[in-house]
Amino acid sequence: MLDFSAAKAALQAFVERLRSILHVPRHLGAGEIEVIYRSFELDPRRPRDLDIPTDEMLAKKLGVGSAQIDAMHERLRS
Predict the structure, then answer these.
(1) For residues 11 and 38, what is the distance between their CA atoms, to the nearest angstrom?
(2) Cα separation of 46 and 23, whole Å?
(3) What predicted TM-score, i.e. pTM, was given to this entire model?
(4) 13-34 pLDDT, tens digit each
(5) 40 CB burial (10 A radius; 0-12, 13-18, 19+)
(6) In whole angstroms, how far apart are CA 17 and each of 21, 26, 28, 51, 56?
(7) Is 73 helix (H, G, I), strand (E, B) or coil?
(8) Which residues contact 11 (CB under 8 A, 6 or more apart)?
(9) 60, 55, 57: which is closest to 70 by C-alpha?
């Protein structure tokens, strides 16, 4: 069984820090914060000065068409 107590404590500390930055009183929004984890891959081999659109770069890298790239972006947005 995995123990997520350290991660939960870190997340609670982050939320408290965020509340203090945004000046949100502790009694507001208690239990109403939803955290959604989304993974993504950074490509350290991609040249920084590459001057092509991101969609075109992804299509070439992944070997897929523009419809699949659009579907991928939609999945990330949902």
Answers:
(1) 15
(2) 39
(3) 0.40
(4) 888 887 777 776 666 665 666 6
(5) exposed
(6) 6, 11, 14, 38, 39
(7) helix
(8) 35
(9) 55
- Enter the tokens of residue 64: 């897929």
- Tokens describing residue 60: 């070439």
The tokens for 41 are 């891959």
Q: Which residue has the tokens 């965020």?
A: 18
Q: Which pLDDT tens digit goes with each residue over 47-62?
A: 778 788 889 988 988 9
Counting every residue, how long is the chain? 78
d(CA 65, CA 58): 9
Q: What are phi and psi of 63, to 5 degrees?
A: 70, 40
